[in-house]
Structures are given as structure tokens and as C-alpha cells.
Inverse folding.
């Protein structure tokens, strides 16, 4: 399978159809992989694909990461299902044009959640919880796919697969808050969760605004809570569930629990799953006249 | 140097004794978990305050995620409070607590980083001592613990350190392999702590076994780099524009994780947090990897590309620290490698520089960047 | 006409973010008609309920509000045609976020009040104030979140006491 991808990448580079191919290569440890930018046809053999490739590559297509400054006019990118959902969401939000991207889709049966859990193969003991119930194991939007693409029914509603969200919803309110207080004790506002997100693309993030200072940059409880609540709110209806924010957190805080819960809310209230349609706008910038309003006085 | 033996199983009791003598004790602990968390969660080991010896991971696990930096150089703290009344501003001093503290279970890499922080914050030669640091430093004692099982990301031996080094330690513990620890009192502060633990210490220790046990761990490190030529190569200003910086640093996303978990990184920012006419001036951690770190008020940014920011980080660790502060900038703990979401690896930079230093006349690689 | 004045131990602080075309005018009408209602509410006038950013609500809680109320024109009557529809969607999701975070959403109220509904304004405010009074001070946002460094000033209070 990877040979077909490599051949296609080689062809694209030789024909000058793309400026760069973004893919995965062997990392500096046997258990890790790293993003790689291939500009010459002879380097395509560096491309690999296996269950260690948990990185979400579309973050390099986010304009905060300077892809236009690097001179990439047309980019080929290797995408597994969840990555392609992020790309589709970027296109739906007009952050990218469809003809700027050449999507090399790959089939995926799941990814290993942490390098420490890699033991040579993917199995239920190390599969990330985001992969359970995934309906884009065969990706939905591709320009090239090795092999046949079977039809998949993707109309089922989104399901939260992280057990922690359900656990938290079962707790009482003050215990829930106490949980977040303890968990956020270790947050030191590094903003790694923001930088890895493919959708965080504001030129000047609200955290960097100083006049007025909406979000205190210091890592006291006020600063930490206001950041995480704001981030969750800004991603409502846009988060495509790659889980990179949690993976990137250097203190192993599960920050994407907020995003998972909000995806459930958006699904219930507006039947919208982000990242499946190139045209549909996400729910907070659209409305229906008969939207739910049972809580309104 | 005074030496003794301690049973590893008595460490909990040691913590209890220290807590009972009114010391603040900080030890590595696993974060409590909330029921079944599925495959996504892993053990989270951090240094936190403990109030008994029942729940600690001293000597277990490898490196706590946070290190000891935050206990000397606070994540955030107020410098003073202020209140504006018309045109007058009243400065109100704030009162910090600096309890006597013992941090137990510190690994040699973290202990060695303290000298680096001291060279920045308490170097009397520089003409300034930061009281927020020195007050804490003077009241903190470090009980260090030699490593027995380094992982693939550790590389302390490549930066002139060792997994059993007692540099920066006040009281050093090394496993002898039979359930006993060899105890070395390194400083007066360590002597004071050893006195509190007298009841649990016995005998003279076993120097020969300690050296053998320590040396056997050296071979377990697999990440080996030659760091000797790096500083000279970086001092050559022609190498500042080498193509390697852009090639290796292209995938960096500027998340700042590496700087926040690094035991020697010490950049900070100061802002005023206002509420009406009152407020606090606050000092908190900052990172050179943020895109606005070197942004001038004019809009010009000398480190405008991400690879330039990472180049600065590498320079800081391997040239600026040794040159300006005469101390090491990188202690080989490997946290930046573990934390980086895109597997940007400082040891890859080290290897590349060593390679270029050894082959100065090799044809420059065809650059991808015209 | 006048209400009996009651003394309570705890007076909640209520923040209201209202749209100027409908709710603010309704509140104004309540004032010019000399209607009594709980004085705990502090109002911020905005051009439209669609202008209300969740940041305002988070910041209101951070600054010590015990309850937040958002109010705008009835659906279909928005001065800018559709602002209140967006506000409705935003609030639906924001409430769930607050709930997941462990913050009691009984402290967040959302209502449609038009410029003629002065009576409804007074009723909504009275009812909400009583509800928040019963809920008490906001426990989550009280101490170290509203003033993160208050404990650093303690020494001064002890010295001056």
C-alpha cells in the first residue's frame, strides 16, 4: 500500500504538479514517527505509514504555520480519515482551497495512542479511544487512494468514545469542578494545545491580545480556566476530533474532553458532524428559525 | 564525606519523618485516576507536595513531567500589588511564603540543572540577585536518586553528566541492587537532613558497590552524541545561516512544550493584571518559541520564522549558557524529545552539528530552500 | 405599589447583557413607569444579543458575578434580522460547556424581552435574583479565581489590623 503512495508521490513531484508532499517518516525512536516534507522525487522512499502515525498533518496547512510563506502553492498530503476530516473542515471554512491540496488517502485501522504503548502491532490494548467507532477508516475525500474505496455509510451520529467524558457527566457538579481544578493544576499555559490544532488559525490569538487582556497569560486558576473554556467555545462545531491537543500537552492533561463533549452537544442539537462536507457551514455561523429553545424564558 | 545505608523500603518513613519536622516535602507522585479511563490515559508522574510517605514514587518511574524548576522559579507569582488613586499610584508589597523545603527523588539531570538556573538568577557577579529565586533556593534541600533504568530519550552522558552523578545534590541515594541504598551526604544542608533521618540510616554504606552499581547504568543509555565540537561550531558566525537550521527546524510548530518542560529554560514575562484601578504586576513563564517573543513594537520581528526560534533555542543551550554563564545549558534529561508532538529532536541537531564540524570541507548539501 | 423592602444576608451580583433595541428599552420602560424590581442587576447595553461573546460571560463570572442574564429581541424581531438566532445557538452550546465544566447553569439565564415587556423584565429579574440568592455565592468562582493573589496580601491586612 505504501508503495503505491510513494509511486504516486514520485509522479506528482516529477511532473511538477505539487511543490511538496507532506507525509510520515521514521522518527528518532523506534516507536515514533515524524512529519516529513518531501520536495524531491528521489526522497519519496522516506514515506512510511503504519499505526504509529498518529500525528495530524493538516496542521501544516493552517496559515499560522506559514505554508504560504514557504511558497507552497499546491501541496500533496498523506491523510488518514481523521486528518482528511480536518482538511475538509479547513476547506469548508475557506482557510484552504480544494485545488491547493492533493489528498493521498490511506486506509487506517486505528493508531497507537502513546509511543510507550507500541509493541510492534496495533491491538485493543493500545488503540487510541478516538479510533473506536471511526467511520472514516476508509477516507471519504481523496484524490488518490491505493486500491478500491468501498462505500461507507457515514450517516450515523457521532458517538463519544472516551470513557472519561461519560464518567465526568455522571459526577455531581461540584465534584466535576473539583476534578477540573486538580487536573488544571498542572497546566502552565504553554499553548501547545493551540499550536497543534489544525483549526486554530487566528492571526493574533485572543490570548495574545493585550488591549484588552481577555485571557490572563499567567497560569493561575483564572488564567487557566478562561483559556480552556475559550478554546472549547471557539472550537464548537469545528473540532474534528484528532486528539492532538491531548497528545501534545506536555503535562498529559486530557484537554480534548471539552471538545468531545461539545461535539456530542452539537450532534444532538444540530445534527452536524464537522469535517464531512466541503460546503456545509458549521452550526454556530448558521441558524434555523426553529432552533431548540427550551431553556429560554 | 559521610556515607550510610538506607533501606529502600524505608523511604516512606523518611518522608514521614521530614513532614513531622515541619518541612514541606515534595516527592514524585502518580496523579490519581478517575475510574476507567480507556486506552488514552497513561501514568502521569509529577513532583507534588506530599503530606505522608504513603503515596510516593521515589525511585520508581523515570522523570516526573514537571521537574523541580517550578519550586525555585515559580510558574506565576505577583511581584507587587498597586492601586491608582487619581494621579498617584500606591505600591503595595506582597507577602510570599518561603517554607523550608525538601525535594526527594530528584534525578541527577534535574539536580544538575539547578546550577544553570543559579547562574542566571543568583550570580552576584552579574550584579543582580533575584530574591524570588534566592529565597526559595536557600530554603530548599535536594535528595537525589541515581537512575537505574534510563529510557531511549535520555542522553545525560552525552552532555558530561552521568545517571549516578551527585552534581547539585545535597544528599545522594544510589540503589545497590539488594534493596539497600548507599547514602552520600554532599553538603551541609544534606547533613542537616541526614540528622533528621538518623533513625533510619545505618552503617557506613558500601562505596565499591555504589560505584559498580552506578557505572553499570551508563551502558544502558542508547542515545549517544558527541557534544564536544558543538560550541566551537556555533561560535563560528558563518554557521548561523547554515542550511541545516531550516531543514531540521521546518516541522517545528512553535508549541513551546520543550521550553516549558526543560529544566534549564528560564524565560519569563511580566504583565500588569488590572481590575479597575487596582491590580498586580505578575511574573510568569514565557517561551522563546512563541511567535511574538521577539516581536518589536514597530512590527519588525527578527525571529520571524519558526526555524529561527528553534535555532535560538539550540544556541541558548549549547553556546550562550556555557559562554555567558559558564554552566551547561542542556542536562540531557530528554524531556523535550518526549514532549515534542512532532518529534523534533535536539540530539538530531547535535549529531548534525558534530557531523558538519567533522567535515567542514564537504560539499554543502543541495538546499531545498533557495 | 412600592414593594416592602426586605433585608437579606446575601445580595447576589447579577450581570445582564442586553440588546439595546428591545430589552434595554423594556428595562427603560420599567424605569419610567416607576416599577420596582430587585436592584442587584448591573446592565451592559450592546447593540444586539448576537454581539454577546461567551468571553463576556466567562469574564463576568471571573469578576465576581453570581449570575449572568442575557436578553434580546424575540426571534423574528431582531433589529438586525438574525443576530438573536446566532445568540440562541451560541448560548445553547455555552450552557452545556459550563455544565460540563461543573458550573451550575441555573446561574445563566437567557430570555426574550421586547421593548414593550417592562413587566416581563421585572418579573424575570426578580425571579432570577431570588433563584441566585438561594443558590448562594458562586462557589467555583469565588476565592482564588476572582482574585488569584488575594492570599499574598493577607500579611498586610494582618499588619494593619
Amino acid at each position: 500500500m505504501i508503495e503505491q503512495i510513494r509511486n504516486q508521490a514520485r509522479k506528482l513531484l516529477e511532473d511538477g504538479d505539487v511543490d511538496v508532499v507532506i507525509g510520515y517518516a521514521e522518527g528518532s525512536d523506534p516507536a515514533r514517527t515524524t512529519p516529513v516534507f518531501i520536495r524531491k522525487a528521489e526522497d519519496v522512499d522516506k514515506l512510511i505509514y503504519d499505526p504509529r502515525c498518529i500525528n495530524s498533518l493538516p496542521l501544516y496547512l493552517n496559515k499560522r504555520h506559514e505554508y504560504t510563506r514557504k511558497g507552497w502553492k499546491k501541496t500533496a498530503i498523506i491523510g488518514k480519515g481523521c486528518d482528511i476530516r480536518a482538511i475538509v473542515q479547513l476547506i469548508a471554512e475557506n482557510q484552504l482551497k480544494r485545488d491547493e491540496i492533493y489528498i493521498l488517502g490511506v486506509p487506517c485501522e486505528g493508531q497507537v495512542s502513546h509511543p510507550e504503548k507500541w509493541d510492534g502491532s496495533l491491538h485493543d490494548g493500545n488503540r487510541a479511544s478516538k479510533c473506536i467507532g471511526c467511520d472514516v477508516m476508509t477516507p471519504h475525500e481523496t484524490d488518490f487512494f491505493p486500491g478500491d474505496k468501498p462505500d461507507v455509510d457515514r450517516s450515523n451520529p457521532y458517538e463519544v468514545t472516551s470513557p472519561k467524558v461519560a464518567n465526568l457527566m455522571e459526577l455531581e457538579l461540584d465534584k466535576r469542578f473539583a476534578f477540573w481544578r486538580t487536573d488544571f493544576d498542572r497546566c502552565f499555559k504553554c499553548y501547545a494545545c493551540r499550536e497543534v490544532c489544525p483549526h486554530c488559525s487566528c492571526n493574533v490569538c485572543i490570548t495574545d491580545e493585550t488591549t484588552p487582556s481577555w485571557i490572563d497569560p499567567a497560569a493561575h486558576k483564572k488564567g487557566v480556566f478562561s483559556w480552556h473554556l475559550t478554546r472549547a467555545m471557539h472550537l464548537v462545531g469545528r473540532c474534528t476530533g484528532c486528539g492532538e491537543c491531548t497528545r501534545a500537552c506536555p503535562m498529559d492533561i486530557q484537554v480534548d474532553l471539552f471538545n468531545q463533549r461539545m461535539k456530542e452537544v452539537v450532534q444532538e442539537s444540530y445534527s452536524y458532524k464537522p469535517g464531512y462536507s466541503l460546503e456545509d457551514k458549521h452550526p454556530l455561523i448558521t441558524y434555523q428559525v426553529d432552533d431548540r429553545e427550551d431553556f429560554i424564558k | 564525606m559521610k556515607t550510610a545505608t538506607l533501606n529502600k523500603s524505608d523511604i516512606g518513613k523518611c518522608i514521614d519523618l521530614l513532614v513531622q519536622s515541619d518541612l514541606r516535602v515534595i516527592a514524585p507522585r502518580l496523579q490519581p485516576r478517575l475510574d476507567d479511563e480507556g486506552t488514552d490515559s497513561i501514568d502521569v508522574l509529577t513532583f507534588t507536595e506530599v503530606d505522608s510517605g504513603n503515596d510516593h514514587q521515589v525511585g520508581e518511574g523515570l522523570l516526573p513531567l514537571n521537574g523541580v524548576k517550578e519550586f525555585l522559579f515559580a510558574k506565576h507569582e505577583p511581584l507587587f500589588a498597586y492601586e491608582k488613586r487619581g494621579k498617584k499610584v500606591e505600591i503595595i508589597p506582597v507577602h510570599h511564603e518561603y517554607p523550608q523545603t525538601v525535594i526527594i527523588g530528584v534525578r541527577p539531570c534535574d539536580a544538575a540543572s539547578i546550577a544553570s538556573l543559579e547562574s542566571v538568577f543568583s550570580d552576584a557577579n552579574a550584579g543582580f540577585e533575584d530574591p524570588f529565586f534566592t529565597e526559595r533556593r536557600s530554603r530548599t534541600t535536594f535528595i537525589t536518586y541515581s537512575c537505574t533504568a534510563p529510557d531511549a530519550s535520555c542522553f545525560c552522558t552525552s552532555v558530561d553528566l552521568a545517571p549516578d552523578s551527585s552534581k547539585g545534590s545535597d544528599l545522594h541515594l544510589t540503589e545497590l541492587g539488594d534493596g539497600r541504598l548507599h547514602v552520600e551526604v554532599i553538603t551541609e544542608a544534606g547533613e542537616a537532613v541526614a540528622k533528621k533521618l538518623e533513625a533510619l540510616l545505618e552503617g557506613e554504606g558500601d562505596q565499591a558497590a555504589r560505584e559498580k552499581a552506578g557505572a553499570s547504568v551508563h551502558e544502558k543509555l542508547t542515545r549517544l552524541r558527541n557534544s564536544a565540537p558543538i560550541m566551537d561550531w556555533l561560535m563560528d558566525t558563518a554557521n548561523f545561516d547554515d542550511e541545516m537550521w531550516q531543514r531540521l527546524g521546518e516541522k517545528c510548530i512553535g508549541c513551546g512544550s520543550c521550553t516549558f518542560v526543560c529544566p534549564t529554560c528560564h524565560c519569563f514575562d511580566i504583565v500588569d493584571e488590572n481590575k479597575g484601578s487596582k491590580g498586580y504586576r505578575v511574573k510568569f513563564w514565557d517561551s522563546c518559541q512563541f511567535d511574538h517573543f521577539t516581536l518589536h513594537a514597530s512590527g519588525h520581528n527578527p525571529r520571524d520564522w519558526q526555524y529561527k526560534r528553534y535555532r535560538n533555542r539550540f544556541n541558548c543551550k549549547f553556546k550562550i549558557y556555557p559562554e555567558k554563564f559558564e554552566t551547561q545549558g542542556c542536562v540531557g534529561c530528554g524531556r523535550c524529545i518526549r514532549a515534542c508532538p512532532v518529534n523534533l529532536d535536539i540530539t538530531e541537531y547535535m549529531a548534525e552539528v558534530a557531523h558538519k564540524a567533522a567535515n567542514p570541507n564537504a560539499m554543502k548539501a543541495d538546499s531545498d530552500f533557495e | 405599589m412600592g414593594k416592602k423592602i426586605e433585608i437579606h444576608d446575601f445580595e447576589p451580583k447579577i450581570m445582564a447583557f442586553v440588546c439595546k433595541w428591545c430589552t434595554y428599552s423594556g428595562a427603560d420602560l420599567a424605569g419610567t413607569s416607576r416599577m420596582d424590581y430587585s436592584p442587584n442587576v448591573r446592565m451592559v447595553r450592546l447593540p444586539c444579543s448576537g454581539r454577546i461573546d461567551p468571553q463576556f460571560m466567562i469574564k463576568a463570572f471571573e469578576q465576581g458575578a453570581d449570575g449572568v442574564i442575557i436578553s434580546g429581541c424575540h426571534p423574528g424581531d431582531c433589529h438586525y434580522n438574525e443576530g438573536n438566532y446566532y445568540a440562541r445557538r451560541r448560548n445553547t452550546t455555552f450552557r452545556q460547556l459550563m455544565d460540563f465544566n461543573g458550573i451550575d447553569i441555573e446561574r445563566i439565564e437567557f430570555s426574550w424581552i421586547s421593548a414593550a415587556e417592562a413587566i416581563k423584565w421585572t418579573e424575570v429579574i426578580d425571579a432570577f435574583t431570588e433563584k441566585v440568592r438561594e443558590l448562594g455565592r458562586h462557589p467555583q468562582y469565588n476565592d482564588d479565581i476572582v482574585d488569584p493573589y488575594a492570599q499574598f496580601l493577607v500579611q498586610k491586612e494582618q499588619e494593619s489590623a
Remarks:
- The mean pLDDT of chain A is 89.
- Chain A is about 30% helix and 10% strand.
